[in-house]
């Protein structure tokens, strides 16, 4: 983690110019910064109100959480911090995510909404991000998982962001390392049963389930213009009755045959995540395993068009090898299945080609 002078970050953001403003929330603003050498970063600056009060609590918490986590491709990682000792002004410098948020991608009325394969890819990456948080020692609970906190990098890989409300569990228990004054989160994504800070891993699981429903339906978590405003209350009866097409984004037309089973599987997982019985909600490790099964086990291998994986398999067989490894050079995300290691991104890229051909 780098330590920057406050002046260096002021220069990088053109003194926090409006032309560099890329995000704004209740606790502050995010600016695009260009460091010496040309590296592009994002800079979080507390709101003026918090600066007047010299309250860096949430920013300090985010710095503490991010600096304790290993760098990973699934989370918006910390680059460094800046702290002016005299004025107590503090800034957080993080990775720059050039392609905006999932919320914008879903709800900006774009003529080119995400493909079904891309949505499946986003769901799996988000699940892996939360799994990493819950699996860290001690566990980290995000507490504000929502589509606007999922950002895309220059290669359109989604990453989980904004750890200002995150907390740590004490050791391996479900109790907190400290006691927050009250539950936190965003209405619509927040578990209705979250009235006391307990079983917090299941709070994140609920929020994840809401995001999955939002990804496939392209409906907002709360939409007061609809007869049933809650996405959970609207979607659960449809999923229970296997009315998948009615849940899915109507802009996309008929579901491609190669994606129906996968989407049904993922919606069933989402339904379990938002169950009112928190004890019946799966863990993030269970969710990741089930999602991998949804994506990999349902692949119809004859449809694979890539010559490279076939070539690898033939070579492995000819050499009498007991293992076959198929990897994507740009996206090293693999799923182990028996003696094979399959690239999820390769699988979904091939499926996306099939999906496009079926909708032409």
TrEMBL record:
Q: Which residues bind ATP?
A: 45
Q: Which molecular-function annotation in GO is an example for this chain?
A: protein serine/threonine kinase activity
Q: Which superkingdom heads the taxonomic lineage of this protein's source?
A: Eukaryota
Please tell me whether the keyword Transferase is annotated for this protein: yes
Could you tell me the keywords of this UniProt record?
A: ATP-binding, Kinase, Nucleotide-binding, Serine/threonine-protein kinase, Transferase
The reply on keyword Hydrolase is no
Residues of the Protein kinase domain: 16-303
Q: What does the sequence similarity comment in the record state about its family? A: Belongs to the protein kinase superfamily.
Write down what this protein is called.
Answer: Protein kinase domain-containing protein
> Which organism is this protein's natural source?
Papaver somniferum (Opium poppy)
